[in-house]
Amino acid sequence: MPNKAIFFDRDGTLNVDVHYLHEPEKFVWIEGAIDAIRWANEHGYLVIVVTNQSGIARGYYDEAAMHRLHDWMNAELAAHGAHIDAFYYCPHHTEGKLPAYAKSCDCRKPAPGMILRAIREHNIDSAVSWMFGDAASDVAAAENAGVKGVRYTGGSLCELIRATIETS
Ligand SMILES: [Mg+2]
Ligand SMILES: [Zn+2]
Questions:
Q1: Is residue 47 exposed (0-12), middle (13-18) or buried (19+ Cβ within 10 Å)?
Q2: 11 assigned to a ligand binding site
Q3: How much distance in Å is there from the Cα of 34 to the middle of ligand 2?
Q4: 13 C-alpha vs ligand 1 centroid, how far in Å?
Q5: I need a surface site. Which of 40, 119, 131, 146 has the fewest CB within 10 A?
Q6: In the chain, where the domains are located
Q7: Per-residue pLDDT reduced to its tens digit, 84-128
Q8: What global pTM score does this model have?
Q9: Which residues are listed for Zn(2+) binding in this entry (predicted)?
C-alpha cells in the first residue's frame, strides 16, 4: 500500500530561520514544530524534510556539517518521542562558488525534484500527502509535485497542521 507523507520545509518552518544555519547551537525550534512532527508520526504520515541549502554551493558549510545538524535534529526529536523519516536537500545554486554545485537543477524549490524523488523512493501517494512551508516556493514545489501545499505564517505549526488536515 502506498504511504502518506507530510513534507516540511526546514528553515523558517521547523526552525527559526537564521541564514545559512549549520550549527546545532544556533538551532531554535519553531513553536509547535516538535509536536507537529510527533503528530504526523502518530497519524501514520512519513515525515520528510525538503530543504534548499544553497550555503553548500556558496561554500559556507559542507554536506557533512549539514548531515551532522540533521542527525542532531533527530536526536532532539527522539527525546520527545518523534522522528523525521528522511531529509532531502538541494545543495545547488546558480551563483554558487563551488563548481560542483554551481548549476541550475531540478531540485531547488520551487522545482519539485526533491518531492518527486521522495515520492518514488518511499512509495508515497501524493494525493493524500501535504507540504508545509513558510515560503511561496514551498507551496509551488508541492503543487508542482501534485501535493497539497500550505503556507506557514507563524504561530503553532502543530495547530496549523491539525486544523488543516483534521478538517480536510
Ligand atoms: Mg523556509
Ligand atoms: Zn538542486
A1: buried
A2: yes
A3: 27
A4: 6
A5: 146
A6: 1-18+27-42+56-128
A7: 999 999 999 999 999 999 999 999 999 999 999 999 999 999 999
A8: 0.97
A9: 90, 92, 105, 107
